Fold this sequence. Notes:
Elements: E1 2-4, H1 5-8, H2 18-27, E2 32-38, E3 48-59, E4 62-71, E5 78-82, E6 92-97, E7 101-102, E8 110-111, E9 115-117, E10 120-122, E11 124-126, E12 143-144, H3 154-157, E13 163-168, H4 180-191, E14 212-215, E15 223-230, H5 239-247, H6 255-267, E16 271-275, E17 283-288, E18 294-296, E19 302-304, E20 310-313, E21 318-321, E22 325-326, E23 338-345, H7 348-357, H8 363-368, H9 377-392, E24 395-396, E25 401-403, E26 411-416, H10 417-424, H11 430-439, E27 443-447, E28 451-456, H12 466-477, H13 500-513, E29 517-518, E30 524-525, E31 537-538, E32 549-550, H14 555-566, E33 573-585, E34 588-600, H15 617-630, E35 637-640, E36 646-654, E37 657-665, H16 667-673, E38 679-685, H17 686-692, E39 709-718, H18 723-733, E40 738-747, E41 756-765, H19 774-792, E42 795-796
Helix pairs in contact: 5-6, 6-9, 10-12, 11-12, 13-15, 18-19
Amino acid sequence: MKISYKWLKNFVDTTLSPEEISLALTGIGLEVESLEKVQAIAGGLEGLVIGEVLTCVPHPNADRLRVTTVNVGEAAALQIVCGAPNVAAGQKVIVATVGTTVYPLSGEPFRINKSKIRSELSEGMICAEDEIGLGKSHDGIMVLPEDTIPGTLAKDYFKLEDDFVFEIGLTPNRADAASHLGVARDLAAYLRTAYHLPDLTAFKAGEQPGIAVEVADAASCPRYSSLLITGVSVKDSPDWLKEQLTVIGIRPINNIVDITNYVLHGLGQPLHAFDAAKISGSKVIVRKAAEGEKFVTLDGVERKLSSEDLMICNDTQPMCIAGVFGGIDSGITESTTSVFLESAYFNPVSVRKTAKRHTLKTDASFRFERGTDPEMTLPALQYAALLITEVAGGTVASAVNDQYPEPIQPFNFPVSYKNINRLIGAEIPAAEIRSIIQAVGIEILSESEEQLDLRVPAYKVDVTREVDVTEEVLRIYGYDNIAIPAKVNASLSYSAKPDPENTQQLIADLLAANGFTEILCNSLTKGAYSRQPEQAVQVLNPLSSDLNVLRQELLFPALESVAYNQNRKNADLRFFEFGKTYHLINEKYVERPRLLVLLSGNAQAEQWNQKIQPVGFYHLKAVVDGVLSRLGLSGFQTGEAALEQFSYGLKYFRGEKVLVSFGEALPADRKVTGVDKAVFYADFDWQALLDSSRKNKIFNKDIPKFPSVRRDLSLLIDKAVNFDDLKSVVYKTERKLVRDIQVFDVYQGDKLPAGKKSYAISLTLQDEEQTLTDQKIDGLMQKVIVNLEKQTGAEVRK
Length: 798
């Protein structure tokens, strides 16, 4: 889920930086997986300043050019050759100074250099609005008001503000946080401040009867709110709306649909806009579909409906799958002049089953099937109506029709201070507990010295018990604020020999020492990957068709990881995973511990004195033999691996027990997961290995969580300088972040100056505490280059 920093600040006042908010949100359970800076326009107007044209005379060697002098707030004016027909002395203009990269609306960015144009010096460029992304006009240069001050930075003059986008890994239980308002509520609770809802004081309902609504299935649709807006003009949305949606990855469509998306992502309440003229009989009926009824959705697909599917219909036919997807015939078009706006609360189970049945996943169904706020239907409806009349014109013609026969009740239950502190494992003051409970939106009905009687709003679908309230208190109080006790009570117990954890760590260390990376894949996977569908363990209520069974093999999730890396130019891979597979055998569920080892790409990193060699079967065999040797296993038999799992391969076994099978992955298995290079893997029966292994001592070191980065340098150096000299300088410059240095090319020949040779070296950089940014990498590389030049006389070749 993407959250905009600027949008978030509409709901909560904060001076925290985006980085500080990232840490705060992650600490309270909304994990920020990434933070991306988004410039208001490409380039952010960096290097552009306001200038004043002091003089403007014809170019002596070109009829259509002018030679100008421009004051940009520095001691000396700049001479700039300009071809715009409207340039004149006395104008205030935008100037791209030397060294600036300009980002035009069309074409590639280009850098401004000092140059001579028809023998006349030009020290910059006077810009048109399309040349810097501020507009589409190219009729001439952009002329600013006379009172504009020369030397002002263009980004300050136009008040450009960069945005930042948080990518939040929202867990399924946090439906209340699936919007900017939801995240703002949590942030406000953390800051102990208030959050803001949109101002609805300007909303005025109409008096026309509007579209009649009949809710035939109140169990599936407990609340249905609607109104009619007439006189709208469907067109492109204003820039502010398009920019706000685009920054979080939503494609603008038109001003009506864009407003419904804006409100959905802002308030978390899905809306649906119908063309009122297409509602036959001027009546909306919320009912279940007839079994086998046909319906064409917005994507042009005809779907066969179930009698369990809730539909939004007119008096003759369905118009929309409730809470999931609209129909092709009732949506907003350029000819729409009247809009019937729907804001409803649908039963989460009903929406989830329908979305799964038709394999449809939309922003609306994502929220409805997890549970929306039944009290938000009216505010969201009124807010959307205000915005639609603002951007599309028209008026709210009807009264608000709000059908809510049986209001959904909040959760009422008591909690005790003693139980909260017992579960947390620390004594939190009662006043602090009360403050946090109120900050997260829970009402305290009554209280005593021992307990609180609470009312939890219905939008907090995951807070229904005392333990849930304890979790709310703990996440806002802060996990890091719970001290680790000096003494931990423990008891002695029997430990199996060999110790399973120690043995696993022993092999993990061995593989890591040989260049392998441990991966941890999801046990939930696609049913299509099952080689034995009759043994597949089905998930009763899967979140998606891609996560509908438990894995029967470790291979397919690992191949997805291979594809992910290969698609990001990281093709030389050595993976291993300890995990379990799951099977339904003779009506019994069986778990089997396994170890997967996988190779793909080249056998080793690129070297200047060796040819590139792709991994092969015998590279894998050496790893398999090494694992078995480390466990002290020998004396097993060898046979051909099962061809339904490998293109070719071997298996090691004792009696009927197969210890490991290994070989090349089937092309069909690679194809279904999107892997385009050969993969070799070994599938170990880990339990069989444990049963046969003997005890070993191990040492371990955590594998870094954050990715490494490679940077290459081409150096011209004296023949007397060797690689160790270069290596020493690099490590002295930065020991912590430089993980490896290698030479991958050496050249000595007559094309180089006498006494010189050329080295191409690669630096692998990695930070164990955070992901390296481009700014930090570039700064480090600049230090390395400067020190190499100073201490070895190296010349960096461009």
